[in-house]
Amino acid sequence: QVHLVESGGGLVQAGGSLRLSCAAAGPTFRQYTMGWFRQAPGKEREIVSHIGWSAGSTWYANSVKDRFTISRDNAKNMVYLQMNNLKPDETAVYFCAAAKKAWEYWGPGTQVTVSS
Predict the structure, then answer these.
(1) What are the pLDDT digits (tens) for 9-41?
(2) Neighbour order of strands in the sheet with 68-73
């Protein structure tokens, strides 16, 4: 089992940057693919990025490619999402999640608000 808690959200102006962190508790963290999702008001949750257990495999949604970077530190049980050049329509609650065959563990989320 993996317990996840996100941090690092906040208010930023358009074009600004934020770095989200996800702290994972559990002895098997490094066995999981880790992902970041977001959910804007009135919209469905969407996947933003994910990273394989060895950090050698990453994937990004087209909308965030070349602006967001996902990383993980298995020694510290941490996952990060560096977000640059943020846009107002990226205002959302951002969630960290863990998967083996499905996204089975979720954090409570952290609010990111991008002002225009």
Answers:
(1) 999 999 999 999 999 998 888 899 999 999 999
(2) 3-7, 18-25, 78-83, 68-73
Is 95 within 8 Å of 40 (Cβ atoms)? no
Helix (H, G, I), strand (E, B) or coil at 59: strand
- Which residue carries 């943020």 as its tokens? 86
Q: Are the C-beta atoms of 6 and 96 separated by less than 8 Å?
A: yes
Query: Does the structure show a pLDDT above 80 at 55?
Result: no
Give the pair of three-digit tokens for residue 80.
């990060």
With beta carbons less than 8 A apart as the criterion, state whether 77 and 29 touch. Answer: yes
For 1-116, strand residue ranges (E) read: 3-7, 10-13, 18-25, 33-39, 46-51, 58-60, 68-73, 78-83, 92-99, 103-106, 110-115
